[in-house]
Amino acid sequence: MCKLSGLTKTHDGLGYFGYIEPYKAYVEVISFDGLVNAATERNRAFFDRLGLPSS
Questions:
Q1: How far is CA 55 from the centre of its chain?
Q2: Cα 28 from chain centroid (whole Å)
Q3: Total Cβ atoms within 10 A of residue 10
Q4: Full-prediction pTM beyond 0.85?
Q5: Which residue, of 16, 26, 39, 54, has the greatest Cβ tally within 10 A?
């Protein structure tokens, strides 16, 4: 469905993103695992500073 909707594959190849003009909506499609991995990477320094495990 992502390809049929004209969405662009993400740089890591694990998702899609794009703007769907008829609905005037920006859409991102990613897996739950991809979401968790991205959040972990973004917040790693914050977790380290608090002394919390990042995994």
A1: 18
A2: 7
A3: 14
A4: no
A5: 16
